[in-house]
Amino acid sequence: MKKYIKSNLFYFSICIVLFSTAGLMSVFLANILKRMIDTSTAKNITQFYHVMILTIFFIIINFTLHILRGFFKAKFLKKVMLSLKHDLFKGIFSKSIKDFNRENTSVYTSIFNNDLKILEKNYFDNLLTIISDLSQFFICLVAVISFQFELAVIIILINVIAIFVPVLLGKILSHKQIDSINKFSDLNVKIKDFFNSFEIIKCFQVTHKVIDNFDHADNIYEESMENFRYCEGIIAGFSTLSSLGVSVMTTLISLYFVIKNQITIGEMMAITQLVNNIANPLGRLSSELPLLKSTKPIELKLKEYMDIKMVQTGIKINGLNQITMDHISFGYTENKEIIHDFSYEFLKNKKYAIVGNSGCGKSTIVKLLLNYYDNYKGNIFINDVNLNEIDMSSVYSHLSMVHQNAPILNDTLRNNITYYNDYSIEQVNQIVHEAGLDHFVESLPDGLDTVINENGNNISGGEKQRISIARTLLKNADLLIYDEPTSNLDHVTAKEVEKNLLNRNNTCIMITHRLEDNLLERFDEILVLDHGTIVESGTFKVLLDRKGVFYSLYKG
Ligand SMILES: Nc1ncnc2c1ncn2[C@@H]1O[C@H](COP(=O)(O)OP(=O)(O)OP(=O)(O)O)[C@@H](O)[C@H]1O
């Protein structure tokens, strides 16, 4: 976190100066109190006017300092949180697809919703309070020493004992903190899943079970929070002991010095005031310091993400001429192989269909091509270069894909289609037409500028699919991969859209369950997959004539 302080040193330095004045202001106030009491015992009206002016001056300065502290603290926190979130977001997006998929997306959202908030409050904000309290403690201590050396020594002794235990407890607090963060992340995953499945939960009438499930996860989280709060409570107890002990001892000892005529009543008041400003900050410090320490695990966790660099090593490819899958075997888990000895060569500008029963591994083949997983046996080559040696970003720049469940942004239809790239209005309109979206766009109140809701819940499944198709076509990549692109479209629209998809001069791999003549006749090669292996391949006509697996699938 020091890096973020360094990069915002200007605002941090101003904050240090402003928050450090807290001690001086306490001494100022103690001085005013001393003068007030001494004036009352001397009954001197000139002294009274001096004290009055001094008090007004104190109030104005104190007020101004508070305003300035608030202003610069807000600036500092804004700057530091902006750069922190930027680096974190960039770090997460620097992950490869396979690394990103290893964690549930709720884990990432929980970092932003929870971890960063804790860091802001317990580290950066807390740090400024610590500076203020340290300044009060040291400056007031020096002031007390200048009044009464023996008194200062006694105060230090009491405080050292009182602060020692909470600092030790800080380590335990830190463990409790990280435990509660992990539990919160688990709870977040559940909440996200349940909200995403809202309609299904209602239809299946399992609301009570879901509530039980939620309660269970929440219970685990709250128990971890309860442990954390217990620990905080114990630390707070020691803090109170510290400040109370010091206050009582000081008053008694000061009284003794007054009785012995070694200090005036005004000085006794000033000392009591100063000691309060030693004991109270010290009491607070004994919980603030452990809190600061407790953010260490969060810092380490975030650092892991922020240290991820966009890996752009490897060989760059300038186009996709041929893709060779050579004896590929793969399973998501060790004991279940999904793809068995799959070998095939996809050639430039040819059209391929992959068909087969549900679960036979069609999408998995595509995921392996896209390097989502690298723990397969065999080799994948692109233009004769092994996929493991290629800079994947150069591969991604030459391909585009329509996913089975197309992700939709909570943004305008235009941005959902262009994905923030710059295209002319003519290009966008042409693609809208090819994806069969003309009527849909016309029906929208703001046309392409209409905002689509989160997950596209104000549009139909077919419209979502056509947006995804438009997005893919607009990129006009060398290789277009379609995973059941028209499964949600009516027969007529599907036919029209598929015609546009296959008319293009690109390599195309389409996974489809639509075994219809007018579609299948358009492919150069149809791969028939069964249990992760190609059992037949050829043109539609050849496969029909063979009267084998494909024929049975086709005839249903
Ligand atoms: N991330 C995953 N982790 C574990 N198993 C998975 C994962 N993804 C898919 N599978 C399993 O791998 C097998 C093949 O899945 P795949 O999605 O490739 O099938 P598919 O032929 O595309 O099916 P469909 O036609 O239904 O889309 C299935 O049994 C599926 O349950």
Automatic annotation (TrEMBL):
<keyword id="KW-0472">Membrane</keyword>
<dbReference type="Pfam" id="PF00664">
    <property type="entry name" value="ABC_membrane"/>
</dbReference>
<dbReference type="InterPro" id="IPR036640">
    <property type="entry name" value="ABC1_TM_sf"/>
</dbReference>
<dbReference type="InterPro" id="IPR039421">
    <property type="entry name" value="Type_1_exporter"/>
</dbReference>
<keyword id="KW-0547">Nucleotide-binding</keyword>
<feature type="domain" description="ABC transporter">
    <location>
        <begin position="323"/>
        <end position="556"/>
    </location>
</feature>
<feature type="transmembrane region" description="Helical">
    <location>
        <begin position="48"/>
        <end position="72"/>
    </location>
</feature>
<keyword id="KW-0812">Transmembrane</keyword>
<keyword id="KW-0067">ATP-binding</keyword>
<dbReference type="GO" id="GO:0005524">
    <property type="term" value="F:ATP binding"/>
</dbReference>
<dbReference type="InterPro" id="IPR011527">
    <property type="entry name" value="ABC1_TM_dom"/>
</dbReference>
<feature type="transmembrane region" description="Helical">
    <location>
        <begin position="234"/>
        <end position="259"/>
    </location>
</feature>
<protein>
    <submittedName>
        <fullName>ABC transporter ATP-binding protein</fullName>
    </submittedName>
</protein>
<feature type="transmembrane region" description="Helical">
    <location>
        <begin position="127"/>
        <end position="145"/>
    </location>
</feature>
<keyword id="KW-1133">Transmembrane helix</keyword>
<dbReference type="Pfam" id="PF00005">
    <property type="entry name" value="ABC_tran"/>
</dbReference>
<dbReference type="InterPro" id="IPR027417">
    <property type="entry name" value="P-loop_NTPase"/>
</dbReference>
<feature type="transmembrane region" description="Helical">
    <location>
        <begin position="9"/>
        <end position="33"/>
    </location>
</feature>
<dbReference type="InterPro" id="IPR003593">
    <property type="entry name" value="AAA+_ATPase"/>
</dbReference>
<dbReference type="InterPro" id="IPR003439">
    <property type="entry name" value="ABC_transporter-like_ATP-bd"/>
</dbReference>
<feature type="transmembrane region" description="Helical">
    <location>
        <begin position="151"/>
        <end position="173"/>
    </location>
</feature>
<dbReference type="InterPro" id="IPR017871">
    <property type="entry name" value="ABC_transporter-like_CS"/>
</dbReference>
<feature type="domain" description="ABC transmembrane type-1">
    <location>
        <begin position="14"/>
        <end position="294"/>
    </location>
</feature>
